[in-house]
UniProtKB/TrEMBL annotation:
It comes from the Bacteria. Residues 2-130 form the Response regulatory domain. Gene3D superfamilies: 3.40.50.2300. Transmembrane segments: none annotated. GO terms for biological process: phosphorelay signal transduction system. The modification 4-aspartylphosphate is found at D51. This is Two-component response regulator. Keywords: Phosphoprotein. The keyword Phosphoprotein applies. Pfam families: Response_reg (PF00072). InterPro entries: Bact_response_regulator, CheY-like_superfamily, Sig_transdc_resp-reg_receiver. It comes from Candidatus Scalindua rubra.
Amino acid sequence: MKILIIDDDSDIVEAMRMPLEANSYEVISAKSGKEGLQKVKDEVPDLIILDVMMETQTEGFHVAYKLRSEEPDSEYKEYKNIPILMLTAVSSKTGMKFSLEKDEEFLQVDDFVEKPIQPKKLLEKVSTLLTTKKSKI
């Protein structure tokens, strides 16, 4: 299984890469939303771990919107069912809090987790999202 991590913080990427690779996941990464969107096309990952704040405070949301677009001519339409785990420090930096139940339309992601994430929690979330994806196929 291939996981794409889109995050501009190389320390965070490495902290996630180690437990994922130790559990036999193939990990690729991108440092920006633009690079991440290109890697989605090039690599077709099974799961995307997406940071919210990169070049802008909402860049991750924009990436998720593009990937989940319902537009028939979207260049990302064939990738819209790839699960997205949003990784964020938004609530600690801005005071904003999100809930999948009440913000589902806004978030356009399958799950989210606050930074810093513990390796065990990361692996649980990844496994759950990949299992859910398989059951939808």
